[in-house]
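@channel anyone free to eyeball this complex?
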Amino acid sequence: NAGVMQNPRHLVRRRGQEARLRCSPMKGHSHVYWYRQLPEEGLKFMVYLQKENIIDESGMPKERFSAEFPKEGPSILRIQQVVRGDSAAYFCASSPPDTREKLFFGSGTQLSVL
Amino acid sequence: QQQVKQSPQSLIVQKGGISIINCAYENTAFDYFPWYQQFPGKGPALLIAIRPDVSEKKEGRFTISFNKSAKQFSLHIMDSQPGDSATYFCAASISGANSKLTFGKGITLSVRP
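replying in thread with the prediction:
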């Protein structure tokens, strides 16, 4: 059973470009969470999604950031018009429907904005 | 306002020693307290977790001690090994509230051979 798969592992963007981060949850998992990790900081919750629904986006910046988890395909975290402050490691986690608290994390995408 | 605070910020332990990492929380509604272990270049991995109805939980060399009145919990690593060198995060969540975890800032543990 493959774990949570994130790609790309590393993403370099120039200021003003768009960044698209992908996450495929573990098989059988229907809940996806996105977290952001800055150097010397813990992980900060961004958004919680189920298939075709955003359940909680209280941690998402109001502008430029969006997330989706379509019926088919991976979850996507999209950052438009990136700025240097968006440089961080972005982690996706998934959980099974019966034990939602038990999060399994992917290896993350390291976003660098030049 | 940081809802989950870890101490110390870093820890160096000799091989075979006991590593102790502490965590304090503020929100009394939290009822699930996991510890995550993260190696460089990897995502966090669940190590052990506890709920407030027990004061201690042990899994192998890892033990969580929980003090509800003090709003604190700690991770003890017995017989620490160099392979335990990693960053450790405590976290907390509220059951039913979308299960989103609030993490501490993490501490770096180095176990010297």
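from a first look: The mean pLDDT of chain B is 92.
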